[in-house]
């Protein structure tokens, strides 16, 4: 760990000397101090706009980006250019992955694939194993869905399980949240992780492999183990409105004419969900262990590219979750059309975060932060986690936190090896899971769906997210020490 810290400090010193190709004076100046103040001012501005004035995160990040550019002394004509350039870059790289992931998730949901997974695993493990089964289900569902979408789709199943098995709702509700949150924070192709990967120039496949290694123990700790401690100590009474809305077949918002005539098989559902993950991991294995050469390697490299692997999975899902289970072309088209509206908010936030990041880079703020961190000898992994945790605590959004923190940390990652870059991306995702509380919209969703008080939600939702952040960062540090 001492060696890792030393190398991180050296890297920070290197990052302090350059940013976007510009040389920066090694001596600390008053302007450097002002640039650090600009970071604080811009973060405070974003927090006030989102939390107090209830301005949408897109507008808040846009205003924050303009504030960074103006206060740092950027030329007026370049202020808008910095934001639009960053927005275009990040949307082009990450936006298509968000769209394809949303399509895959919607096809699985509309086909009844989620119901098939839950039913099969519940039958296999019995009542005592339900928290473990639900954690696994949530992780599988979360691989191809955003947290909020996956949570809304899992709520009816959680309530149905609790009702049918006469089971305490938190014994299945907390594991559902834990599984989704774990893969959302650590496993691509989720937007936050992808932004972090892009910012630090990490390999998607390698980050995926390390993310899964860290995610498994985290999901166990935050899911079944924390649930066993928490549920007897927190009272939860499911609201009658939620039971009425979500324990019927029509509660998910789909009409009968969009429901296929039969469910997809469990094996087919699992294979389709895991297909893009398998393709990306295969590419990572070839890059790391040189399993293939020549034409075979070229093919595997192409298929393992995130955009291609997700596109392949979507094309397979059109059959396995659509035509193969009796859906008509009109029904499949209806599912595809419903895929896009829920992700509009995610796309604009990610884009605005990219613009904010570019403003930081163009203003020289990143170099000042790197120089300050180098003088304080803060290891890069810890710095990434701290910045992301601060942004999550302040803004309430894990995606916003990751995007903003990646913009600050990204320029410090030049020269990192593939392993260190992947771990740095995971440290950003880990920090962005920290301390979800009352400024997080999903906090209130969890409270209302499962009939909790604010105090009860803090003792379950907030504690679980804090535990996830700390245990995942510990896993990143263990990997960093083990891999040198």
Automatic annotation (TrEMBL):
Keyword Repeat: no
Any single Gene Ontology cellular-component annotation: plasma membrane
Transmembrane segments: 37-70, 90-109, 129-157, 169-187, 193-226, 263-282, 302-327, 339-356, 376-409, 421-438, 458-483
Single GO molecular function: gluconate transmembrane transporter activity
Keywords assigned: Cell membrane, Membrane, Transmembrane, Transmembrane helix, Transport
Membrane-protein topology: Multi-pass membrane protein
Subcellular location per the Swiss-Prot or TrEMBL entry: Cell membrane
InterPro entries in the cross-refs: Glcn_transporter (IPR003474)
Pfam families: GntP_permease
Similarity annotation: Belongs to the GntP permease family.
Protein name: GntP family gluconate:H+ symporter
């Amino acid at each position: 760990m001492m060696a890792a810290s030393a190398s991180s400090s050296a890297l920070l010193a290197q990052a302090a000397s350059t940013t976007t190709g510009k040389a920066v004076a090694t001596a600390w100046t008053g302007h450097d101090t002002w640039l650090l103040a600009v970071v604080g001012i811009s973060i405070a501005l974003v927090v006030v706009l989102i939390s107090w004035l209830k301005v949408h995160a897109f507008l808040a990040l846009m205003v924050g980006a303009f504030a960074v550019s103006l206060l740092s002394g950027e030329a007026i004509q370049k202020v808008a250019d910095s934001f639009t350039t960053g927005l275009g870059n990040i949307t082009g790289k990450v936006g298509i992955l968000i769209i394809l992931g949303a399509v895959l998730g919607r096809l699985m949901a509309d086909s009844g694939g989620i119901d098939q997974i839950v039913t099969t695993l519940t039958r296999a493990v019995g009542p005592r194993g339900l928290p473990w089964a639900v954690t696994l289900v949530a992780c599988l569902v979360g691989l191809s869905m955003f947290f909020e979408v996956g949570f809304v789709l899992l709520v009816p199943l959680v309530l149905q399980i609790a009702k049918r098995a006469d089971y305490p709702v938190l014994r299945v509700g907390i594991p559902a949240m834990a599984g989704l949150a774990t893969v959302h924070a650590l496993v691509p192709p989720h937007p936050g992780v992808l932004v972090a990967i892009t910012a630090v120039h990490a390999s998607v496949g390698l980050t995926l492999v390390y993310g899964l290694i860290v995610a498994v123990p985290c999901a166990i700790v935050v899911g079944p183990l924390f649930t066993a401690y928490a549920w007897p100590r927190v009272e939860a009474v499911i609201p009658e409105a939620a039971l009425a809305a979500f324990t019927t077949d029509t509660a998910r918002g789909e009409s009968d004419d969009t429901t296929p005539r039969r469910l997809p098989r469990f094996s087919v559902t699992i294979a389709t969900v895991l297909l893009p993950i398998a393709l990306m991991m295969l590419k990572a294995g070839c890059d790391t262990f040189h399993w293939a050469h020549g034409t075979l390697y070229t093919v595997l490299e192409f298929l393992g590219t995130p955009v291609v692997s997700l596109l392949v999975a979507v094309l397979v899902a059109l059959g396995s979750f659509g035509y193969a289970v009796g859906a008509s072309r009109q029904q499949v088209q209806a599912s595809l059309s419903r895929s896009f509206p829920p992700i509009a908010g995610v796309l604009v936030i990610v884009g605005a975060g990219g613009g904010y990041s570019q403003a930081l880079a163009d203003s020289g703020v990143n170099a000042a932060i790197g120089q300050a961190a180098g003088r304080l000898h803060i290891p890069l992994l810890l710095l990434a986690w701290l910045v992301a945790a601060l942004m999550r605590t302040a803004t309430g959004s894990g995606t916003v936190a990751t995007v903003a923190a990646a913009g600050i940390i990204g320029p410090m990652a030049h020269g990192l090896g593939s392993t260190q870059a992947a771990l740095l991306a995971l440290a950003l995702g880990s920090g962005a899971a920290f301390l979800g509380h009352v400024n997080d919209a999903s906090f209130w969703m969890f409270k209302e769906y499962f009939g909790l008080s604010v105090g009860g939600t803090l003792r379950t939702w907030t504690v679980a997210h804090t535990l996830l952040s700390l245990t995942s960062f510990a896993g990143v540090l263990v990997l960093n020490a083990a891999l040198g």
